[in-house]
Amino acid sequence: MKKLFYASFAYMILGVSSGLFYREFTKANDFTDATFTQLAVVHTHLLILGFLVLLVVLVLEKVFTISRSAKLFGWFFWLYNAGLILTAAMMIWHGMLTVLGEESTSMIAGIAGLGHILITAGMIVFFIALGKAVFRPAAQAQPVQA
Fold it and tell me: Would you say residue 142 lies in a domain?
């Protein structure tokens, strides 16, 4: 549970910081809002997909002890986080190129697509682990008392 807490906190910091970066980077480069840049939505992606989603997962972990399926839960955690970081990094890269007036490459879109695939795979693994936890027989569902 500590991993979820710290990861969620890290995404909150990254989300707020990316909003600040967007504002300052566009201002420093005299970028007008007439043209859309992906920098404008990086902070919402990090805050929702990182901060809030992982807080919800933390609550579900507390209620259902999803991590009892340690292998599945580990796969979810690392796939999801790798996908989100990769996606956000490509959005930042693409957005910076837009602000600087440079052309973006299809490689950026391809890597961002890979990030989305990792997020999707992580969510599928999460739901498998959640299903195992939710439908676990009542005798096994009780938390272990030390």
Answer: no
